Amino acid sequence: MRKEFRKLVTIDEANKIIESFDIQPGITEIKIEDSPGRVLAEDVVSEVDVPPFNRASMDGYAVHAADTYEAREDNPIRLKSVVSIPAGINPEIHVGRGEAAEIATGAVMPAGADAVVMVEYTRSDKDLLIFRPVSINENVMHAGSDIMVGERVLKKGTALSTREIGVLAATGRRAVKVYGLDVGIISTGNELEEPGSKLNEGKIYDINSFSVASAVKECGGNPIRYGIVRDDETEIKNVLKKAAERCDIILTSGSTSAGSGDVMYRIIEENGTVLAHGIDIKPGKPAVIGKVFGKPVFGLPGYPTSSLTIFNEFVAPLIRKITGEKEEKTHINAKMAVRVRSEGRSQLLPVGVIRGRVYPVEKGSGAITTLAEADGFIEIPSEVEMVEAGETVSVTLFGEVDIPDLLFVGSHCLGLDTLIDVASLKMRVINVGSSGGLSAIRNGTADIAGVHLLDESGEYNIPFLERFGIRDAVLVKGYLREQGLIVRKDSKISRFEDIIGARIINRNTGSGTRVLTDIKLREIALQRGISFEGLTENIDGYHTEAKTHSAIASAVKLGKADVGVGIRTVAELNGLDFIKIADEEYDFVIPPGLLESSGIKRFMEALRSQEFSEKLPPGLRTYERTGEIIRMPYSEIRK
Amino acid sequence: MRKEFRKLVTIDEANKIIESFDIQPGITEIKIEDSPGRVLAEDVVSEVDVPPFNRASMDGYAVHAADTYEAREDNPIRLKSVVSIPAGINPEIHVGRGEAAEIATGAVMPAGADAVVMVEYTRSDKDLLIFRPVSINENVMHAGSDIMVGERVLKKGTALSTREIGVLAATGRRAVKVYGLDVGIISTGNELEEPGSKLNEGKIYDINSFSVASAVKECGGNPIRYGIVRDDETEIKNVLKKAAERCDIILTSGSTSAGSGDVMYRIIEENGTVLAHGIDIKPGKPAVIGKVFGKPVFGLPGYPTSSLTIFNEFVAPLIRKITGEKEEKTHINAKMAVRVRSEGRSQLLPVGVIRGRVYPVEKGSGAITTLAEADGFIEIPSEVEMVEAGETVSVTLFGEVDIPDLLFVGSHCLGLDTLIDVASLKMRVINVGSSGGLSAIRNGTADIAGVHLLDESGEYNIPFLERFGIRDAVLVKGYLREQGLIVRKDSKISRFEDIIGARIINRNTGSGTRVLTDIKLREIALQRGISFEGLTENIDGYHTEAKTHSAIASAVKLGKADVGVGIRTVAELNGLDFIKIADEEYDFVIPPGLLESSGIKRFMEALRSQEFSEKLPPGLRTYERTGEIIRMPYSEIRK
């Protein structure tokens, strides 16, 4: 057996290595309008007085305060109105005793005058009548009384946003020095293609250089993408060298696994120092930390979620420290919704967080949907065997994620998209089929499950609540949908039996559609006197599983399969033919404690609304039971 | 008396007008790397399968699973190793029974093979030895099993950040449609100059077009600055017309007060409709809402804080609604630290928020420092007479403000800047002099006050705690600083008495330096047998108040004054001469409940540190009492 003999570093060791990096961020001067979100690299000292002159802070008349002391509502004093001073000019006049100059808010106080009488307390006839006294300096703002020349108005290290930009403008600054940490980003791998280009055979789109660049930006860094580099030592070396000339930190992804493509490690070793080859926390094993061509370099794992996880755990704190970017938004405490068993080694587990509850997001290795469904990750140290439901955990978020209101887990349906749109809900939809939805309700992770499971008795959904051991949820009747065969217009398939011998695309195990398909297939096997396995062995594509109706339709449309089972809606949307085999009851299962929550209330209102009924796509329809709530014990209801 | 007869609209009426605006945001297509923070204007449906082919999810050997069923650790099976498949190519081979193809993670599964044996469970000699069985599909990720063609991966209205950008890249999207709301921004006023240009007489820098543009951006809008426009009807009209052609919303500021420059109202009336002329909530009186050249227009007040307040109250929610930008970050609930008396009319009161406590920020009308020190504002309806200390209020933040850890109120000192730097604290520093600091401690708003108040007995600070009615704070001895006269090198002034008859720049009332100055002046008045007022009347500039030592030095340096009282530090920093008159004790007052807080602990550590002592600028020095804590009752200590 081939074995690896590699000494992984611990998290603490990795962090010590990272702390030892002495990175000085570059400083760039930018226009203040481009500065929101950046961090000041200089103390800003005002070079002007604000205001720059003694100014009137009210519309009115500039006077000698002493002239007004006797003014009364019923006994106004008279002054000679000499001139009018608008804002923006330098009034080269002197207001003498007994005189007044009309003055606008913000205008320069004329020499002589030491107060402003508000216009409301004056009246003009041939003279100016003043009805109230003012004291010296009243309604006058002195030069520099707001900010004086020489005052430090903003401190180095300040994060700039709206109000700081206002302060900068006020002191006459149009450009400002900010920190700029250039972070080079390189994706390696022969299999990578640039998004937007055609995908050749055997290739996949490069994700990491885009997602990591966005993450770098959120941390206050300036990402510089060097694009995709083939798995070629010379090519990678050249790009690393180029990046090292300009950048303060270099991030690569891919080419770090222990397999045939493990070139990154060797290049770093030959052109610098490898400080860590693998971190002893899942998914850190493929990570590399080192210096190459004099600059710190991090080799991130190739899988997108792993790459972002290792970035957020080890690189993001470093970049934030250097750029002074705030951290508070990226960590939250919340309670585990389910018990999680440790894998026996330290791990960073991707999790979703909805309504303060944390649940693990575990998809296949390298699945991009893990990233789409996870809000962040939690650390489970190797010595922890179990994280219990209800335990408070600290979640490191994948940047500034927009966390939805409700978590839907279950069967995919286009009607659900309509419902979400009508209810204006932010809902995370996880398509794992009806059984997955019921499991999630039982585990306490889902807020709503969407199910359409047919019992062999002919009853939908209710029998399965009991079968899944769900005792305290309500079933909300949803809508009906036509299930059937989806085929191309030129297909010879006309009835369910015809799928035997055809190339099919199947739905995923646990989905209601799969249950329906298998019930129908069992009937045929029974009729033909053969085993179910014997029958399905002869169906080409029986084990090719698609997760959604749309995916079924696509496969048929593109000729990857000749037939699949799905709903009329997607058949019609894709210009395909549809052969109805059943009218399904698509229902929702909801924990009873949530029925009074605002989110579920909006959901229920939308479900029962005329608008939803009208907007439902063809093949789906509401009926008299739509919105009906069935409570436990279900068995009684069934009688 | 001149009076205004104008019907202000209520907040509700203003909001109804704004709700009636039917604004459709534009849609623009941008590269995904530029999309963080934008909102999707399309449903994103995957046009590719992810992965696009059946791929190996481990490094190992692609085999027929059935060939491995008998494999055991102590009894490996032998397969013929036929070829090696790297990632990124299309393997045009067929793996037959009894054969194995070496395969890299991410590579395309060859025809024939239906599983991958991990490399760890194999060994090569002339054949390939397999030590563990695999089942069908093991370590294989099926085409489309992550995302299938036709699947909606992102919903219209989704806010884009790191993970969404990863999903977009994964499905091959390089560009994406996002909402783009163009918001035109115009500053009007003859007195305005562009920051960065020279400030002519009577002019001030334009602040609003920069701060409002930044605020628009934070709401998800696309600000378009039309710069500064003179108070000229034709000019303003032309710019409004130009802005209306391109923009979805127009924001102006200035030219809306009731005085001579009130042209905006007339222009809107002549070229559209004025829907509201003044909103009945302070500072909304100068605001105008209407339509001009077919587009919604908001005339914001000219003062920067007022302008941002009205923007955040009325315009920001509109822009956020249209752009789908999240609101949660801009509102927080917190407790009032002090009682606030209403002004008898509705008002939006600027407030600071530190450690969850809200305190009003009230500077002079139009002060830019209000903006610098306020984090947001609270609404006080007209029917509320008083907001009590401890009451929970909802604060609308001025965008994504960076709220500091601690609030310092008191006397300005450069030593404090050093202390903040050594302690690495984010501290808001409000320079209102020593008395202001003590008031803030008494009111419960400040976390630290910095004081240097000399009692006529010759004792510093402690007598003033009692005088201010502070019974439960501790006094922390700070450092010594040399106070004296700051004069130019060529000055004839050589002792304190010389300031009589000179042009001076004074410190603000309530500052310790002012107290020191007045004590010295009283001594002189006493010696000369004249009244204090009689003496100060003859000091040119006695009533010109600067808030900081730096400002004093600047005024002297620039020749605006001949002498001021301040610390040696700033005299030396400005190349000025210094004539010492006292060694002051600069101390800190801290509520005792905070002594154990992490912020104050860091503050105390820094104060007592060698580093602080060494970094203190010239003229300031620590001494044996530095860091000493004096607790109540103060009177006992004084004995």
Automatic annotation (TrEMBL), chains A, B:
Top-level EC class as recorded in UniProt: transferase
Domain of life, per the record?
Archaea
Pathway assignment reads: Cofactor biosynthesis; molybdopterin biosynthesis
Q: Name one Pfam family in it.
A: MoeA_C
Keywords from UniProt, A to Z, are: Magnesium, Metal-binding, Molybdenum, Molybdenum cofactor biosynthesis, Transferase
Tell me which InterPro entries the record gives.
MoaB/Mog-like_dom_sf (IPR036425), MoaB/Mog_dom (IPR001453), MoCF_biosynth_CS (IPR008284), MoeA-like (IPR038987), MoeA_C_domain_IV (IPR005111), MoeA_C_domain_IV_sf (IPR036688), MoeA_linker/N (IPR005110), MoeA_linker/N_sf (IPR036135)
Q: Which SUPFAM superfamilies match?
A: MoeA C-terminal domain-like, MoeA N-terminal region -like, Molybdenum cofactor biosynthesis proteins, Periplasmic binding protein-like II
UniProt keyword annotation of Chaperone present: no
From the UniProt record, give one GO term of the biological process aspect.
Mo-molybdopterin cofactor biosynthetic process
- The UniProt record lists the MoaB/Mog domain at 184-321
Q: Which reaction does it catalyse?
A: adenylyl-molybdopterin + molybdate = Mo-molybdopterin + AMP + H(+)
> Could you state one GO cellular component term attached to this entry?
cytoplasm
Q: What is its EC number?
A: 2.10.1.1
Cofactors that this protein relies on: Mg(2+)
Q: Name one GO molecular function term.
A: molybdopterin molybdotransferase activity
* The protein's name in its UniProt record: molybdopterin molybdotransferase
Upper classification of the organism: Archaea, Methanobacteriati, Methanobacteriota, Stenosarchaea group, Methanomicrobia
